[in-house]
Amino acid sequence: MISISSNLNLMIKATEKASKSLIRDFGEIEKLQVSRKGPRDFVTKTDKNVEKILIDELSKVKKNYSFLSEEIGEIRNNDKENIWIIDPIDGTNNFLHGIPHFAICIALQSKKEIVSSLIFDPIKDEMFFAEKNKGVYLNNQRLRVSSKNKLDDCLFSSNQEGVKFSSLNMRCSGSSALDMAYVASGRLDGFFQNKLNIWDVAAGYLMVKEAGGIVNDVIKFNNNNINIRASSSSISEKMLENLSNF
């Protein structure tokens, strides 16, 4: 039986509630694509709706915690040391085009350190979660990073810029959060990207660390200009050598 904190339990419940409307709206997005109506307005409403549910649910129990979220920005409450970092839909373009690869992300920053995180892929029903010094899990199964040590055997992910730059075996999935969760689970061997926002990487950052991987400290960056380098420990140096000019 996995022991989780009250904060993580709250995050899970809030995400499960928010995901119901997200799954419903995902079906509507596919219809909108065919009918040629304006899906971009719709996805904005979906983002805001998911965000509102998350904020409302988290605030019911932790009334004083602050927030940093993609859509609404900062909410400074009485407790400024504990901050919920939220991305209501990471992989918005995938969602917009009916591609079932996106996630709800929540991380808890306490005293400038990420201590709990959750990434939920509602379509695949995969919930990744982690807590500091307690490991990272996928649907209650403990995760570890890949043990591969040859670049030719490895699979990496980045955005389009990174894919074009690199000679590594690359993918571009459209969701940086899921990419980092996949590094933590060993599905990917590494992920790198420049100019990301804190809500894109905060949850995955803790997961990679707790899975035994290596990732640079995202808290030291400006919240809206983060260069991330995450990988298994066995391939980290080789990956970074390939990224020296990126």
Characterize this entry briefly.
The chain is α+β, with helices and mostly antiparallel strands. The chain has helices at residues 6-35, 39-61, 92-96, 160-165, 176-185, 198-210, 236-242; strands at residues 65-69, 73-75, 79-90, 103-110, 114-121, 126-131, 135-138, 141-142, 156-157, 170-171, 190-196, 214-215, 226-231.
Strand order of the largest sheet: 2-1-3-4-5-6-7-8
Write down the domain tally: 2
What would the average pLDDT be, to the nearest integer? 93
For the biggest sheet, the summary is: 8 strands, mixed
The helix/strand series, from N terminus to C terminus, equals HHEEEHEEEEEEHEHEHEEH
- Give the number of helices: 7
- What's the total count of β strands? 13
Write down the Rg: 17 Å
Describe this structure in words.
The protein is an alpha+beta fold. It folds into two domains: 6-142, Fructose-1,6-Bisphosphatase, Chain A, domain 1 (2-Layer Sandwich); 151-239, D-Maltodextrin-Binding Protein, domain 2, CATH 3.40.190.80. It is 38% helix and 27% strand. It is built from seven helices and 13 strands. It has helices spanning 6-35, 39-61, 92-96, 160-165, 176-185, 198-210, 236-242; strands at residues 65-69, 73-75, 79-90, 103-110, 114-121, 126-131, 135-138, 141-142, 156-157, 170-171, 190-196, 214-215, 226-231. The strands form two sheets. It has an eight-stranded mixed sheet, sandwiched between helices. A five-stranded mixed sheet has the order 10-9-11-13-12, with helices on both faces. Helix 1 packs antiparallel against helix 2 (39-61) and helix 5 (176-185) packs parallel to helix 6. The radius of gyration is 17 Å and the shape is globular.
